[in-house]
Amino acid sequence: MPTTTGHAADRSGRLLVVDDDPLQSESLQLVLQEHGFEVACCGTPEAALERLAGGHFDLLLTDLQMPGMDGIELTRRAQLQSPDMVVVLMTGHASVPSVVEAMRQGAVDLVQKPFAYRALLAVIERALAVQRLRRHNRRLEAEVHQQLQQLETVNAELDAFAARVAHDLRGPIMSIRGVLDAVLVDVREGSTPSTELLEMGVKSSDLSLRMVKDMLSFARLGNEELCLEATSLDTALRGALETLYPEAAGREIRWDIESLPMVLGHPGLIRQVFVNLVGNALKYTSGRQPAQIAVRGASLADGSVEVVVEDNGVGFAPDKAGDLFKPFRRLHSAQQFSGEGMGLANVRRIMERHGGCVRGDGSEGQGARFTLTFPAPG
Questions:
Q1: Is residue 255 part of a domain?
Q2: What is the pTM of this model?
Q3: Where residue 310 sits, what CATH number does that domain have?
Q4: What is the 3-state secondary structure (H, E, C) of the chain?
Q5: Is residue 25 part of a domain?
Q6: φ, ψ for residue 213 (rounded to 5)?
Q7: How far is the C-alpha of 283 from the C-alpha of 339, rounded, in Å?
């Protein structure tokens, strides 16, 4: 039995010793345990693989020559099961090719029998240092991967935010442009500009500023929860209809608007949902005489709220419903209807951030129906 230094244990690590010589295994276990390691022993490679499958080890110390499966094959299989674990081989007669193959399969070191236990301890300490470095590098790689994913998400959010701004500000900006055109005509003709028109321009400007503020707040939230409050869907819808007034003016439209329930929500973002949905209804019913647009809502038995926006417009093919809410995806050509394909993508994102959802149903030439579902107050 070899002697040890007798020093207090100053090492740590979980070791698995594999040797078909029971006396050698027992001796290794005693010495390594005296030096602070937690040690388990196996007499065959097959038993070692079973032990590895059931628990974590930092280092595998295995004999090279064993009946059946040798240490090289055990190293290969063990590395597949436990990539962070390091392997040290023991051998009494290793050839250069076998050493090279062992290293190729993942062994980090090899000790020649007979060996001094002090030398073996030094090899184990070096191997465990490699193992700690390997685990540290893997953690760093995971952190870098996570940061890259976060950066990609931020970039995607920036792109989506730019698209939302471009899409959702078009309505109020067009309204302001219309007011300015009308005022310019009055000025050129020597007439006094209409106070009503100027007030409409101021309202549209105020709305644009509110929308920018709401969308900036929304973008800054990232994946954080929205600050929700008791919100009147009626008020949000009225605000949306004011925004959309220039698009509806002069058209024959049969409105069917019911009183809507209260929900927990962000008033500005919910108003934007109605701007997009009712704006789409106005756009896609432009060829209908008369256009029919309905907005209805109801509280369900489970406390959730459903709101339906329905029209008699051109509709869409049912098999294309899955593309409705994808950014920049359009079901109609730009020659038929203007737009960038961001409105419904915005609606879905806003509803998801409220814990709800949106669903679209329709058929070609038969109109479209969009159903918003707000969850019950938690």
A1: yes
A2: 0.47
A3: 3.30.565.10
A4: CCCCCCCCCCCCCEEEEECCCHHHHHHHHHHHHHCCCEEEEECCHHHHHHHHHHCCCCEEEEECCCCCCCHHHHHHHHHHHCCCCEEEEEECCCCHHHHHHHHHCCEEEEEECCCCHHHHHHHHHHHHHHHHHHHHHHHHHHHHHHHHHHHHHHHHHHHHHHHHHHHHCHHHHHHHHHHHHHHHHHHHCCCCCCHHHHHHHHHHHHHHHHHHHHHHHHHHHCCCCCCCEEEEHHHHHHHHHHHCHHHHCCCCEEEEECCCCEEEECHHHHHHHHHHHHHHHHHHCCCCCCEEEEEEEEECCCCCEEEEEEECCCCCCHHHHHHCCCCCCCCCCCCCCCCCCCHHHHHHHHHHHCCCEEEEEECCCCCEEEEEEECCCC
A5: yes
A6: -60, -45
A7: 10
Q: From CA 10, how far away is CA 36, in angstroms rounded?
A: 6
Residue type, 75: T
Are residues 231 and 368 part of one domain? yes
Residues 127 and 261 in one domain: no
For residues 282 and 295, the answer to whether their CB atoms sit within 8 Å is: no
Return the pLDDT at 168.
Answer: 65
Q: Please state, in angstroms and rounded to a whole number, the distance separating the CA atoms of residues 358 and 351.
A: 7
HSE-up of 180 (CA within 13 Å, CB side)? 8
pLDDT greater at residue 282 or residue 211: 282
Residue 263, phi then psi, degrees to nearest 5: -140, 165
The tens digit of pLDDT for each residue in 51-92 reads 999 888 999 999 888 888 888 899 889 988 888 889 999 887
- Parallel, antiparallel, or unpaired: how do β-strands 229-232 and 107-112 relate? unpaired
- Write the CA distances from 317 to 20, 93, 340, 367, integer angstroms: 71, 75, 19, 10
pLDDT number for residue 189: 87
Give the Cα separation of 42 and 51 in Å (integer): 8
Domain that holds residue 377: 227-378
> What does residue 298 show for φ and ψ, rounded to 5 degrees?
-155, 150
Domain tally for the chain?
Answer: 2
User: Which residues is 312 bridged to in the sheet?
Assistant: none
Q: Between 209 and 124, name the one with better pLDDT.
A: 124
Residues 111 and 254 in one domain: no
In a domain, 202, yes or no: no
Residue 19 covered by a domain:
yes
pLDDT at 105 over 90: no
